[in-house]
Specification:
The complex is a heterotetramer, with two copies of chain A (about 325 residues) and two copies of chain B (about 325 residues).
Chain A lengths: L4 H26 L14 H8 L7 E3 L5 H7 L3 H8 L33 H15 L5 E6 H4 L2 H12 L4 E7 L2 E2 L2 E2 L20 E5 L3 H16 L5 E6 L18 H8 L3 H11 L5 H23 L16
Parallel strand pairs in A: 1-2, 2-3, 3-7, 6-7
Antiparallel strand pairs in A: 4-5
Chain B lengths: L3 E5 H15 L3 E5 L15 H9 E3 L4 H13 L3 E8 L7 H14 L9 E6 L14 H5 L5 E3 L4 H13 L4 E6 L6 E5 L11 E4 L4 E5 L2 H15 L4 E5 L2 E3 L3 H11 L2 E8 L4 H12 L9 E5 L8 H7 L3 H13 L1
Parallel strand pairs in B: 2-3, 2-4, 4-5, 5-7, 6-7, 10-11, 10-13, 13-14
Antiparallel strand pairs in B: 1-8, 6-12, 9-11
Helix pairs in contact in B: 1-6, 3-4, 7-11, 8-9
Classes of the chains: A alpha/beta (about 325), B alpha/beta (about 325).
The structure holds thiamine diphosphate (2 copies) and magnesium ion (2 copies).
Chain lengths: ~325, ~325, ~325, ~325
C-alpha cells in the first residue's frame, strides 16, 4: 500500500480541513446565526479525502445533503463555502443555495443536493459529456446507503454501465438513513454486491481507513479513465453525530455502536498509522492542524463580516 | 362542537389518524421515519407504538415505490396513507399518482376504487431552500381524479384528515410545515369536515381575500391591520381546492366587488389564475376592480433569508395590495 | 415433473384461448374497425398459462401493455375482454380502457398498463394488503425485459423483499423492448441474477415450456403463500410478431432468430409433449381447439353487435 | 424566407436537429428507439446513420436516468437533447426536471447553465388512451426556470427547435403526435424562431382566439367557417407559453374586445386560467364580454372514440363558443 510521506500529510491536511471546517460550522450554527438546517460529515472524511485525492479540477463530482466534505475535497474555496452555508452573498453561490446547494464549476463540483440519489444519474451524464469529448476526465458520485434503494440509483448506474462511462459510484454506507437502519429497508445490506446487477465490479471497504479508500478509489478511477467503465465502491463508515444539527443521534442507535465507531475516527487512525510507519511526526501533524485552524478562522471571519444579501437580486438567474 | 382543547396542529392530525386506524383495521400508514421515530415533524407520533410494524411501517427512500404500493393496496381493499414528508420528494411518484391512482377509477369504468391518502408537508419553514419548500399543489388540481386538501388550522387538519381517509378515491393531503407545532382549538368530540366547503374565516364588506394554508394566516393578520384603517376584509379559505367551493367565493365577491387572491405558490399557471378566471367569468358584472393576485415571485426558493422573504408573499405585501385594490 | 392429463389439457386450453383470442383480435384490428393500438402476446402464452394456473380469483395480478394473455389467464371474461379491446360499452371497462387498460376486480386483475413497470410496485402493494389481512393470497406481477432497467422495478422489488411480502415477479424476457435489444441497454442481461440485489431468490427458465413455468411458478407461489417472501422468475421467451400491430417485427431482428423461436411455439410443444407422454391424444386436443374456436367466435360476435358508447357517460367515474 | 418546400412537420424537426448537430459537436441525442429505428414517430430518422452511437443513443426505459444524464451532461459542457417520445412517460423524470434542471442556474447564482432540451409528443392521435394522450404542459410553465415550447406548424417546429437547442437553459419542447406526418411549407434557408413571439395566424376584428399546438388548427378551421357567418376571428398562437407573449394577446383583445382561449389540456389550474387572469386584469376595460375558455373535459382520456371525441375540444365546439361569445 502506498504510504508515502506526501500522501499521508496531504490526506491528513485534507481531512483536518473538513473536520475543523465543520466543527466551526456547527459552533456557528449552534450560536443561532446560521439559517436553514445542516447535515455534518464529521467522522466520514476519509471517503471524500481518499477519493478526491485522485481527481483534477476538470473531473466531476456529485454530492449529497451531507456534502460539505465533498465540496472542500473537490476544491471549493473554503471561504466561499463557509459563507455559502451561512447564506452570505459572498458565498460561492451568493447564499442562494446554502448547505445542500453548493455548486462550483471552477472545480467540477456539480452540487451538494437536497434530493437523495439525484446526483447519481447527474454524474453519469457528466461522464457522458466527458466521454463524448474523449478528454479522459471522470465523474464521481457520492451517496449514502439511503440512496441505494432509490430509483435514481438503479437507472443512473445501469445507464453508466450500459454505456461503459467513466464514472465511479461511491456509497457512504453509514448504516442509517435518518433514523432508519439500512437492514430495516432492504433484504440485502451488502451494497457492493448490487454492482453485479449492473454487470460492473463492486467492492466493499473500510471507509474510515483513508489509505484503503485512496488505494481502491485510485484503481476504480484509473479503470474509468482507461475506458473500462464504472465501479461501485461501498465505504463502510459511520456518522458519530446526529443526522442533522439538532438531532442528538442517540435513541435509535446503541450507545456502544456509537462509542465503538468513535474509536475508528479516520483522522486519528491516519495519524497513528503515519507515525507508526515513521513517515510523519506528531510535530508536523500538529503543525498542519494549526495551519488549518488559521485557515478556518479566516474563513469564519470572511463569512461573518460579509454583508447581507441584496433583496433586489432575488429574481436574477431564473432563466439562463 | 361544544368542548375544545388547545392542541398543536400536528397533534390534531395524529388524533385523526389514530381514531380512524382504531375504527378501520384496513388503514395502514407508511413513510420515511414515521415509525418508531414518530415522523420528522412528529406527524405520526405514537402510531407505531399503538399499531406496530404491520400497520405503521418505515420505508426506504422509495417515494415511487411507496405510492405504487399505496395504489396496489388500495385496489386490493386496504386504505393506505402514504406519507411523503416533504412535498418536494413526491416528484418520482408523480407517475403512480397521475397515471395510476387518479385514472384507474375512471378507466376501469368505476369498477376499481383507489382509496389512497398521500400526505405531505409543503412550504418554507424559514430557509428550507429550493428542495424543501415548494408548493405545487396546482399540479394535482390540474389532474382529474385527485382531490386536493390544504388544511390551515388544527381544527381543519383533523376534520379533513378524517374525511380524506374515508374518501373512496385518491386524496392529496398537503399540510404546511410552518403550522405543525402551532396550537389551535380542536373539538373534543368526533367530527369530520366535508370536502368542498370553504371556511369564511372572517367576514368583511370591502374586499375579499381568497387564501389557502399559511396564506390564510397572513391574510387574517393583514385583515386586522386593515380594519384599523377602516378597510373591512373578508377572508375565505377554500380548505380543499378540489373540490373547489366556487359558490362561497362568488357570493363573497358579489358582496365586496373586489378580490385579492393570495397564493404561496408561484403565480404562473397555478391555482390563483384559475380562481381569478372563474370569478371574472362568473362574477363579471359584480367586479368593481380588476382581480389582483399575489403569489411567490417566479423564482425557485432561495436559501438566503433576505431573498426568501423577498420571494414569498408577506403580510405587509397583502396589506399594500388590498390598499391598491380598494383605491382602484 | 407433474404432467397429469388434467394439467396438460387445462394448460392447453388456456393457451389456445389466448392464442385464438388474439389472432381474432388481430384479424379484427387489421380489418380497420378497432381503434387505438394493440400489442399481441402470441408466442408467449406459456408464461401466463403456467403462472396463473396456480392463482385463485382472490389472488392478484398486475400486467403490461402486452396483457391480453394475462387478463384471460386470470379470468377476465372473454366476451367482455374482446369488447373492451374493441372499445365497446359492453367491454369489461365499458370501452373506456381498451387493450392497455383492462381491469377486473372480480378476478383480482389489477390491470394491463400503458406504463412500463408501473405494475410492479402495485403488485407489491396488493401483496401488502393481503398480508395485512393474513388471507394467504398472493400477487403476481408480469413485466418485460424493458421494465428491468426501470426505476419501478428497483423500488417495487426492494420493498417487497424488505417487507417479505407474498408476491412473485415474473419477467417475460423476449430479448427486445420495442426494437431495442436488451443487451444494448444493460451490461447484465441475466435478469434472474438481479434478484440477488434484493436478497431474494431468482431463477431463469424456458418461458416457452409451459410445464416448466408451471412447476417453477408453483414453487414460488407456494413460498409466497407460506410467508417466505418474493421470488423473481425470468421466463426466456420471444415475440414472433411485431411489437405492436403494424410493426412487421423484422428489420431489427435476424430472420433466423425469428424462425428458430417459431419452432419453439409453446402450444405446439405442449401438444407434442402430452401426446408423447401418452396423457393426451391428437383428437382431444383438436377437440379443445375447436371448443375454443366457438368460444372466440361468440366473443367476437358479442363485441361486434354491441352498441356504440353513449357520449353522455363521458364524465362518469372521475371521482369515486 | 423566400424559398420554401412542403415537407412533413416531423421532417422539419429532424432537419433542425441535423443542422444543429452538424454545427455543434457538443449536441447529443438520447431516447428510446431513436437510434437505428429512427424514432417511434420517425422523429430522429437519419440521425443515427449520420452521427452514430456516440451522439445518437438508444436508451433503456429509464426516463429518470435519461433526464438526469441530460442534466449532468449539460452541466459538464454538452448540449443534450433528451427524447421522452410520449410526454406521459416523463412523470418519473419530473424530479430531475424541476428540482435539478430548472433550479440549478438560479441556485448556483448563475454559475452553472443547464442547456438541456427535453423533447416529447403530447395529445391524442385518435384513441391513444389515458396513458398516451396527456397535455399537462402547464405543469412545466408553473415551474420557474423552464421554457415551454408548443410548435404548431412545420415552419415553427424547425425554427423553434433550433432556438431550443441554442438556448442556455432547460427547454421543454412539446410536439403534437397528430402533426408529425402533416405537411407544411418550410423555408429552405437557415432560420430560427425566437421564443416569446406569438404568431398571429389569422387577422380578425370581432373575436380573438388564443390557441396552442393542435388547437391552433382547430381554431383556424373554425375561423374559416365563422367568416362565412360574417364573424371575423383573429387567431393567436403564442408558440411558447414560457416566455409568454402577453403584449400580442393584449393588443388583439384591445382590438376585438372578446377572447376565447382553447386548450387541449383540462382546464382547471392550467394555462387557460392564467391567460384569462392576465387579460382580465390587464385589459379589464377593453373586454366587452367575459372571457370564455374551452378545454378538454375534466376527465382522463377515455379510449373509446365516441367518449374521446366528447372529451376533447372540437372545431364544432369552438364555432359554437365563438357564436355565444359574440352574442354576449
Ligand atoms: C428523494 C428524497 N427523499 C427523502 C428525503 C429526506 N431525507 C433527507 S436525508 C435522508 C436520509 C439519507 O440517508 P443516506 O442516504 O443514508 O445519507 P446519510 O444521511 O446517512 O449520510 C432523507 C430520507 C430526501 N432528501 N430526498
Ligand atoms: C415508462 C414508459 N416508457 C416508455 C414506454 C413506451 N413503450 C411501450 S412498450 C415499450 C417496450 C417494452 O418492452 P418490454 O418491457 O420488454 O415488453 P415487451 O414489449 O417486449 O413485451 C416501450 C418503451 C412506456 N409505455 N412506458
Ligand atoms: Mg446513511
Ligand atoms: Mg421485451
Amino acid at each position: 500500500m502506498n504510504m508515502s510521506r506526501e500522501l499521508v500529510l496531504s490526506l491528513y491536511r485534507s481531512m483536518q480541513r473538513m473536520r475543523q471546517f465543520e466543527l466551526r460550522i456547527q459552533q456557528t450554527y449552534r450560536s443561532g446565526v446560521m439559517p436553514g438546517f445542516i447535515h455534518l460529515y464529521v467522522g466520514e472524511e476519509a471517503v471524500a479525502a481518499g477519493v478526491c485525492a485522485h481527481l483534477s479540477r476538470e473531473d466531476y463530482v456529485t454530492s449529497t445533503h451531507r456534502g460539505h466534505g465533498h465540496a472542500l475535497a473537490k476544491g471549493v474555496p473554503i471561504n466561499e463555502a463557509f459563507a455559502e452555508i451561512w447564506g452570505k452573498p459572498t458565498g460561492v453561490n451568493g447564499g442562494r443555495g446554502g448547505s445542500m446547494h453548493i455548486y462550483d464549476p471552477s472545480c467540477g463540483f456539480l452540487g451538494t443536493n437536497g434530493i437523495v440519489a439525484a446526483g447519481i444519474p447527474i454524474a453519469t451524464g457528466a461522464a457522458m459529456a466527458a466521454s463524448l469529448r474523449d478528454d479522459g476526465h471522470v465523474a464521481v458520485s457520492f451517496f449514502g446507503d439511503g440512496a441505494v434503494n432509490n430509483c435514481a440509483f438503479h437507472e443512473g448506474i445501469n445507464l453508466a454501465a450500459a454505456l461503459l462511462l467513466p464514472v465511479v459510484f461511491v456509497c457512504e454506507n453509514n448504516l442509517y438513513a435518518t433514523e432508519t437502519p439500512f437492514h430495516r429497508v432492504t433484504r440485502n445490506t451488502d451494497v457492493a454486491s448490487r454492482a453485479a446487477a449492473y454487470g460492473i465490479p463492486g467492492i466493499s471497504i473500510d471507509g474510515n481507513d483513508v489509505l484503503e479508500v485512496h488505494r481502491v478509489a485510485g484503481e476504480a478511477i484509473a479503470r474509468a479513465r482507461a475506458g473500462e467503465g464504472p465501479t461501485l465502491i461501498e465505504c463502510k463508515t459511520y456518522r458519530p453525530l446526529g443526522h442533522f444539527e439538532g438531532d442528538p443521534g442517540t435513541g435509535y442507535r446503541p450507545k456502544e455502536e456509537i462509542a465503538e465507531w468513535k474509536l475508528r475516527d479516520p483522522i486519528v487512525r491516519l495519524a497513528g498509522a503515519g507515525i507508526k510507519a515513521g513517515v510523519a511526526s506528531e510535530a508536523e501533524l500538529k503543525d498542519i492542524e494549526q495551519q488549518v485552524e488559521r485557515e478556518i478562522e479566516e474563513a469564519y471571519e470572511f463569512a461573518r463580516v460579509s454583508p447581507e444579501a441584496d433583496a433586489a437580486t432575488v429574481s436574477d438567474f431564473v432563466y439562463a | 362542537m361544544a368542548e375544545e382543547r388547545n392542541i398543536q396542529y400536528v397533534e390534531a392530525s395524529v388524533e385523526a389518524l389514530q381514531e380512524e386506524m382504531r375504527r378501520d383495521s384496513s388503514i395502514f400508514y407508511i413513510g420515511q421515519g414515521i415509525g418508531q421515530r414518530g415522523g420528522n415533524f412528529k406527524q405520526s407520533k405514537g402510531l407505531w407504538e399503538e399499531f406496530g410494524d404491520r400497520r405503521v411501517r418505515d420505508m426506504p427512500i422509495s417515494e415511487l415505490g411507496q405510492v405504487g404500493m399505496g395504489v396496489g393496496a388500495a385496489m386490493a381493499g386496504a386504505r393506505p396513507v402514504v406519507d411523503i414528508v416533504f412535498l418536494d420528494m413526491i416528484m418520482e411518484a408523480m407517475g403512480q399518482i397521475v397515471e395510476q391512482a387518479a385514472t384507474i377509477h375512471y378507466t376501469s369504468n368505476g369498477k376499481f376504487k383507489v382509496p389512497l391518502v398521500v400526505r405531505a408537508a409543503m412550504g418554507s419553514a424559514r430557509c428550507t431552500g429550493p428542495h424543501h419548500s415548494r408548493c405545487f399543489y396546482s399540479w394535482f388540481a390540474h389532474i382529474p381524479g385527485l382531490k386536493v386538501v390544504l388544511p390551515s388550522s388544527a381544527t381543519d387538519v383533523k376534520g379533513l384528515m378524517k374525511t380524506a381517509i374515508r374518501d373512496d378515491g385518491p386524496v392529496i393531503f398537503i399540510e404546511h410545515k410552518f403550522f405543525y407545532n402551532k396550537k389551535g382549538p380542536v373539538p373534543t368530540g368526533e367530527y369530520a369536515i366535508p370536502f368542498g366547503k370553504a371556511n369564511v374565516c372572517r367576514k368583511g364588506k370591502d374586499v375579499t381575500i381568497l387564501a389557502m394554508s399559511l396564506m390564510v394566516w397572513h391574510a387574517m393578520e393583514a385583515a386586522e391591520r386593515l380594519e384599523k384603517e377602516g378597510i373591512s376584509v373578508e377572508v375565505i379559505d377554500p380548505r380543499t381546492i378540489v373540490p373547489f367551493d366556487e359558490l362561497a367565493l362568488l357570493e363573497s365577491v358579489h358582496k365586496t366587488g373586489r378580490l385579492l387572491i393570495v397564493d404561496e405558490a408561484q403565480q404562473f399557471c397555478g391555482f390563483s389564475g384559475e380562481a381569478a378566471a372563474i370569478v371574472s367569468s362568473k362574477a363579471f358584472d359584480s367586479l368593481d376592480a380588476p382581480i389582483r393576485r399575489m403569489g411567490a415571485l417566479h423564482t425557485p426558493h432561495p436559501f438566503n433569508p433576505v431573498l426568501e422573504a423577498a420571494m414569498l408573499p408577506s403580510v405587509d405585501g397583502i396589506v399594500a395590495e388590498v390598499r391598491r385594490l380598494v383605491a382602484s
